[in-house]
Amino acid sequence: MLTTAALDVSIGSVDVCRRLDLSLARGESLAILGRNGAGKSTLLATLAGLRPAQGGRIAIAGIELPARDGRALAAQRGYLAQQQHDAFATEVLEAVLAGRHPHLSRWEWESAGDRRIAEQALATVGLAGVGSRPLHTLSGGERQRVALATLLAQQPGLYLLDEPLTHLDLNHQIATLEILAGLVRDGAAVVAVLHDPSLALRYFARALLLFGSGESLAGPAPEVLTAANLSRLYGHPLRRFDGAGHPVFIPE
């Protein structure tokens, strides 16, 4: 679903990655971690085709970026931005129905089937019954879940999510990660920018660390997410504990 070859990405004076090779198939997941300012969001936007790379190549489901057919790309790739911006007043269900647009022709209206898909997406994120509410009346956490529901309604093969746990309380953080894990089990590919290495190790099979100087480290999560690597990544010593059912990393 996603491949990069010798990918170079930078923003301003920051080298995000140099000659990065990645390959992510259906049914695989990747967590991206790094310090603030390391370029995690920049890399994700580049992978989504929303900004140009400085070198190398990116392909999504065989579509080389930059893509000439944006609708075909949108049918394969869903992108969740870090911040949600609502340019127009709308109801919740109408916002989620926007996820169906890549599957419609230019002047085609949403069908009853599209509405059922959108309603099911809202139910999946725990917002059944709020479809008629004005979007601007929702809390930040609810708005984040609406954004995820929009992606679920889009039904892409590749999900690219920039800090999907933003504004969510612990209960909804875990619920969101369980939804993403379910997508992977159903055959989607999922890439997410995260801040918690313990959750990344628990829910993602692979990990990519961005060190902020062009250096990166990618591989199976148990091999990449070690106390030594994470201590170097964050510039603070961390210790791993294995007695809580799932490994956790604690600052020393």
Overall CATH class: Alpha Beta
What fraction of the residues are assigned to beta strands by DSSP?
A: 25-35%
Integer tally of domains: 1
Structural class: alpha/beta
Molecular shape: globular
Main β-sheet: number of strands, strand sense, barrel status? 6 strands, mixed
CATH A-level architecture: 3-Layer(aba) Sandwich
Rg from Cα: 18 Å
Give the % helix: 25-40%
Strand order of the largest sheet: 6-7-8-3-9-10
The pLDDT mean sits at: 95
Can you describe this structure?
The structure is a single chain. Helix content is 33%, strand content 27%. The chain has helices at 40-47, 70-76, 92-97, 112-124, 140-154, 170-185, 197-203, 221-224, 227-234, and strands at residues 2-11, 14-24, 29-34, 55-60, 63-64, 77-80, 158-162, 189-193, 206-210, 216-220, 238-241, 248-251. Strand 11 (238-241) and strand 12 form a beta hairpin. The chain has 9 helices and 12 strands. The protein has one domain (2-251): Rossmann fold (3-Layer(aba) Sandwich), CATH 3.40.50. It is α/β, with parallel strands linked by helices. It has a 6-stranded mixed β-sheet with strand order 6-7-8-3-9-10, with helices on both faces. A 4-stranded antiparallel β-sheet has the order 2-1-4-5, with helices on one face. Strands 11-12 form a two-stranded antiparallel sheet. The mean pLDDT is 95.
